Amino acid sequence: MERKSQSKKLSTRELCFIAIFTAVISAMAPFTIPFPLVPLSMQTFAVPLAGAVLGAKKGTIAVIVYLILGAIGIPVFTGFTGGFGLFLGPTGGYLWSFPIFAFVVGFAADKGNRLWLALGLIVGAAITLTMGMIQLASWASLDMRAAFMAGVFPFIIPELIKIFMVFIIAPKARQALGRISGNSLPRNTGKSIKLRPHHLLCTQSYNGKGYSTDFVKNMTAVTTYLRNNDNASVEIVFTTDDLCSKCPKKISDNLCESNDKVTRFDEKVVSYFGIEEKCYIYKDITNEINTKMTPAVMADICGDCQWHSTSGCREKILGL
Predict the structure, then answer these.
(1) Are the C-beta atoms of residues 21 and 173 closer than 8 Å to each other?
(2) Distance (Å, rounded) from C-alpha 133 to C-alpha 41?
């Protein structure tokens, strides 16, 4: 039977966040301080902020939408200007670079590590200034030294100040956004989520039901985080994990009331899919599992799980 493709559509809430940041960039970018050839603007503050707060995918989309608005003539570029001609002018290189800037910063921010964020901001700013300098040199028939002095040197200190502001503001804004969207975790933020092997299946099929109120709250936080963060990392463990932490069946570390059963689930997942005790990118390993999964394998692994009949296993993993 042909399997349905896994849905990767953005949720309504995610689309709203993208729209909000598109509006933020559009509101901040037009305000400038005049410089010869290239004005100093808040674009290079708002663009990396979108990437750092929304992440690589959604931040890049927000920036692309902003650029489309400007390209069709809406005055959202520096100095309240708009039109596709600006992409071909002296500042066009900066505009072309903005999606890359947002993606690089978002990719780094998705790692959940402030050192990565700092590196992403520096690399992204360097890419933007370099692309801006190259197009400025071509448009104005300048040599690279002259283009550097006109399109890079005056902005080094301002850019450092702006990316430092993003470095300070973005983690708090991202955390607040996570609380609104349900992506924040009670712990392990910025670290790998610990999962035992069979929980790679449970986190995909979970539909809001569980053993207790505390368990459901924790399970919802963990699964929402894993599903909505493209670079979320999981550490595979063969013991109680971050989902077990709020389970009423947990007796102590490495021991639960259903120990024999869950150990059997883990062993079958390891046997079928070659899962090892190491870190994986959650979406990569679950996609690999889902590609190999068949109804017979699922029945063998999950057949005696009390949640199998009421969860979304067949729909969300098999695509049936």
Answers:
(1) no
(2) 16
Q: 12-181: which CATH number, 1.10.1760.20, 3.30.565.10, 1.10.150.120, 1.10.287.470?
A: 1.10.1760.20
Tell me how far apart the alpha carbons of residues 67 and 70 are, in angstroms, rounded to a whole number.
5
Residue 119, phi then psi, degrees to nearest 5: -65, -45
Encoded tokens for 15: 């689309």
State the pLDDT at residue 312.
Answer: 67
Query: Quick one: pLDDT at residue 6?
Result: 40
Q: Residues 67, 99: contact at Cβ < 8 Å?
A: yes
The pair of structure tokens assigned to 187 is 């712990």
pLDDT, averaged per 10 consecutive residues of the chain (320 residues), comes to 47 86 90 65 90 92 96 90 92 93 91 85 94 91 89 87 92 72 47 88 85 84 84 87 83 74 90 90 90 90 79 73
What residues does each domain of the chain span? Answer: 12-181, 193-318
- Is residue 192 within 8 Å of residue 233, measured between CB atoms? yes
Q: Which residues contact 209 (CB under 8 A, 6 or more apart)?
A: 216, 307, 310, 311
Q: Distance between CA 283 and CA 232 in Å, rounded?
A: 8
pLDDT recorded at residue 225: 85
**Res 251: pLDDT:** 74
Structure tokens at 103: 């993606």
- Residue 44 and residue 25: Cα distance in Å, rounded? 9
Please choose, from the candidates 228, 189, 230, 176, the residue with its C-alpha nearest in 3D space to the C-alpha of residue 20: 176
Distance CA 219, CA 282 (A): 15
